[in-house]
Amino acid sequence: MKKPVIYIHNLTKNFGKHIAVDRLNLEVFEGEVFGFLGPNGAGKSTTIRMLIGQISAHDGTATIFGHDVVKSRVAIHKRIGYLSGDMALDLNLTGKQYLHYMARLHGGVSEHVIKDLAHRLDCDLNKRIGALSRGNRQKIALISAVMHDPDMLILDEPTSGFDPLIQAEFNKIILDCKKRGKTVFISSHILSEVQHLCDRVGFIREGKLIQVGDMAELTKTTLKQVRVIFDDQADVSHIRAVRGVHDITVDGQHCMFKFGGHMHDLIDKLAELSVVDVAITDADLEELFMRYYQGSKK
Q1: What is the pTM of this model?
Q2: What pLDDT shows up at residue 12?
């Protein structure tokens, strides 16, 4: 059985009367990509700031690689790469100067590695950081987080300001880390990002961890999305009669609905109708997210 590389027990953080993180318990295992999901203000960033030692917990404990995140902060930092969505960089340095400085702090990083990452992310390292857009600053911060080949990445809203092409390259970088046995902890509210990358996800709401599960299994527990195209105006009276059909919408020959019943019942009924095409897909992470956060104050 794998040992957790992140172990959190009853972790709690208050800001005055506000409980930002409330008795959080979580394990993240070696070699997995774990998604930490929640709306803004749910406690994601506060949890990460406690993990990397930026702030102290009021109660509970957390370890990384078996070491206490407070007592062994320096040793832990040597083995992780960290990126936040609003990383503070020295605006007077060029990207190259900043990365060379960070490379020296890590004990040296190959120039080839830095250039390769900059090329993959379409990042101009010769410009002063203060002259760059938020997205281009984030690219430099990402290079800084991964260039020393850390054993674990802790990424807090890592793709702020990225366009779709850079987002796709970011995904490749993370999946390559996973292939090499690295552990990745991603905090995000971008559902597509998490769904394509993560093995497991945890949902946090108002400081409480409300659900943790395998990505594939979680999506199977939700209603499937069904799209049917008829050869003429859609008559959905027969479909409505199938147990498990919900939220039917009709647009001409097109019919869409959610389904949570026995699949053979639906297939048998569709076989009786004049159907041109059928598409049945598992629900995506957005539906799960909305299910867990309906009624949330945050």
Answers
A1: 0.79
A2: 97
Q: Looking at the domain 223-281, which fold is it?
A: Alpha-Beta Plaits (3.30.70)
Type of residue at 217: E
- For residue 151, CA distances in Å to 50, 63, 177 come to 19, 15, 9
| Cβ contacts of 83 within 8 Å, gap of 6 or more | 138, 141, 142, 144, 145, 153, 154, 155, 156, 158
Q: Which two tokens stand for residue 276?
A: 């041109």
Q: How far apart are CA 70 and CA 198, in angstroms?
A: 27
Residue 284's contacts (CB-CB under 8 Å, 6 or more residues apart) are: 191, 192, 195, 219
* Superfamily of 4-215 according to CATH: P-loop containing nucleotide triphosphate hydrolases (3.40.50.300)
Q: What is the DSSP string of 78-139?
A: TTEEEE-TT----TTSBHHHHHHHHHHHTT---HHHHHHHHHHTT--TTSBGGGS-HHHHHH
Asked if 30 and 181 touch (Cβ cutoff 8 Å), the reply is: yes
Distance CA 295, CA 293 (A): 6
CA dist 91 and 257 (Å) reads 51
Residue 25 near residue 283 (C-beta atoms within 8 A): no
pLDDT tens-digit profile of 30-74? Answer: 999 999 988 888 899 999 999 999 999 999 999 999 999 999 999
Q: Which of 81, 61, 80 is nearest to 71 (CA)?
A: 61
